[in-house]
């Protein structure tokens, strides 16, 4: 009966109990991860149980979107000269950006 | 009592309530129950997987493998040494296997057969299926497998 063993992986190198083992990495296997190794006779397959890299990416994207909104708001606030006015759609645009950020955070909290 | 040796892993199947204790008393060994058979104390609870470079029982595994203990022994080139009570590399067994063809079976010359032992014709014993007879303290073997 195949065994499921705790394992780690980094740069496609799988380790079980600190020992390097040969096997197939199902995920990209580059960043350091924790997961499980399925050992069936001499065949070993590693699968990460970490999804933090995806979650972290979504959080960073949200941070970038919020920053873009802040920058645009700041630019709009500085457009007070006699010949410059901020575009009328700017406030609405910033709200839309903020809403996209909220959806990304909600998605990151409901990862499968 | 049936004695099954698979790739150097010994299993004993008693046929009545005295077989195990009589065997242990005669050979001064300890047999313990594992699933539906008895085996030597140091063979009980062997893991069903080995990791290359890590300890497997008392020795370092040569291969990463998952399976029954006797499959693990085979893939790692190990046998149970009756004399030492430990797992040893198969190639370190150098004793002679005293096995003779008889009427409808093979007869082992004395006591238990050591897996890995070599017959007079140069064949290395791998596995066997036998009956242990307490009146003569010998094995009558119904099947032998050589390496």
Topology, please?
The complex is a heterodimer of chains A (112) and B (147).
Chain A: E1 3-10, E2 13-16, E3 19-21, E4 24-25, E5 33-40, E6 43-48, H1 52-78, H2 90-108
Parallel strand pairs in A: 4-6
Antiparallel strand pairs in A: 1-2, 1-5, 2-3, 5-6
Chain B: E1 2-6, E2 9-13, H1 19-27, E3 31-34, E4 37-40, E5 49-50, E6 55-56, E7 59-60, E8 65-66, H2 69-75, E9 78-81, E10 86-89, E11 99-101, E12 106-108, E13 125-133, E14 138-146
Antiparallel strand pairs in B: 1-2, 1-13, 3-4, 5-8, 6-7, 9-10, 11-12, 12-14, 13-14
Task: Describe, in plain words, how this protein is organized in 3D.
The complex is a heterodimer of chains A (112) and B (147). The mean pLDDT of chain A is 84. Chain A has helices at residues 52-78, 90-108; strands at residues 3-10, 13-16, 19-21, 24-25, 33-40, 43-48. Chain A is an alpha+beta fold. Chain A is rod-shaped, with a radius of gyration of 23 Å. In chain A, α1 packs antiparallel against α2 (90-108). The two termini of chain A are 28 Å apart. The longest helix of chain B is centred in the N-terminal third of the chain and has 9 residues, at 19-27. Chain B has 147 residues and is mainly beta. Chain B is globular and about 45 Å long. The chains are: A alpha+beta (112), B mainly beta (147).
